[in-house]
Amino acid sequence: MKHDGTSGTGAKDGITADEFVEPIGGGHAECAHGALEHPPLEHSAEDRHAVEQAEHERAEFEKQRPLTISRRKFLGSTAAGAAVIASAPAWLPRVSYGTSTGPSRDTLVVIFLRGGADGLTLCVPYGDANLYNLRPTISVRPPGQTDGATDLDGFFGLAPAMVPLLPAYQAGHLAFVHATGLSDPSRSHFDMQKWMEYGVTSAQSAGITTGWIGRYMQTIAPAGAGLLRGLGIGSLLPRSFSGAPASIAVADPDNFTIGGTASTISARRAVLTAEYAHAPDPMGYAATNTFDTIDLLGLIDFVNYTPANGAVYPATTSAQALKRAAALIKAQVGVEVIEVDLTGWDLHSSLGPITGSMSARMDELAGGLSAFYSDLNDAAQTLSRVTLVTMSEFGRRAGQNGSSGADHGHGNCMIVMGGHVNGGQVLTTWPGLAPANLDNGDLAITVDYRDILSEILTERMACTHLTTVFPGWTPTRRGITT
What we know:
Blueprint: H1 48-64, H2 71-76, H3 79-87, E1 107-113, H4 119-122, H5 130-134, E2 150-151, E3 157-158, H6 166-170, E4 174-181, H7 189-198, H8 212-218, E5 230-232, E6 247-249, H9 265-276, H10 283-298, H11 317-331, E7 337-342, H12 357-376, E8 386-391, E9 412-418, E10 426-427, E11 447-448, H13 449-460, H14 466-469
Parallel strand pairs: 1-7, 1-8, 4-10, 4-11, 5-6, 5-7
Antiparallel strand pairs: 2-3, 4-9, 8-9
Helix pairs in contact: 11-12
């Protein structure tokens, strides 16, 4: 990087396609295209051609789709497999293995820091003296001072609450990207989250109704059977998944089932299955896919999952979501992108980088990421096939306000972690915090976040259609991957 402003314990039984196991739990299942509440409707005459085409496409897809089989039966079909089962840990998911349809690629984990995280605190540019002129009372002090930063490279450092990330950084598996973001004049949370998730600026947004993850998935074959390709661990599917096939939002994957009284789930599912069995697509396929997804997630013993290397996930919502993500990734069911949201970053007053709100947010973020890193850095080298990236809609203004907080700004910081991340660095073309170098009072953006995502998609996720994923943008390779 350059700093001078120049470029520089019991598992659930397996389920085959012909077996039925009643899901348990209190979650509520909806299909990807709507709730399963009504019988199918008749298509109008003018829709018949489209329906016939959809049925043909589905039939062709089903020819390529492997028979769902539990991991227990898959492994148990050979003597060696039986030995694996006998020696496997009790939490080991009994899952269906999909057949890979293309080059080996990573699972992408996205953490969206909603509210506008303060990048100048997440990764402190203590080597720029202007920081302390702009933020005399809310900045993290340089290394060596009381509550000072932990040095990373002689210019940037970690706030005390972010120190749990130091081992991953020192091992070369974690990098920071600074002075990054999306160059758009808006300072609206709603607008900027939308544009970031669509992967365009407001000026490029005409006709854009799908998210960048959605467009990525539309332009590449499934990594496995294609049953569950994208997952938002939360109550709502993030906008970035708009248009994504086989993608759902689930707050608790261990309790994903049909809502209502548990004693009648089996009967109600039988009715719904009969109603939708011969429904034309997309309704029929959506219903079938929903039931299959309920069964698939039901095979994974999330509750008794034991992280590797003694990793302990904090009891926070986001950290527990990452724990479930780890279990899902290790189950190898073909999930391609997982997103977790971490909120609470909109700190206009009392920023509190050492003991206050910002410190608490960073503690939750770093604690979850640290456990996730330790867990995936296992004997099976799971980390080598995972890339994680954090983003936020914008950063905060360079200077503090009268309430000891910071208002909406632009330039920010990203974190990238994984087995093939060019880590141990703060990747940036640092613009400087001198008044003349600020962008209307904000840290200037010198690295578009789409450059980082583009490189991850091409180098680690076999993407060959970047112009579709990020329309109107020509990315610059920044060297964030190895």
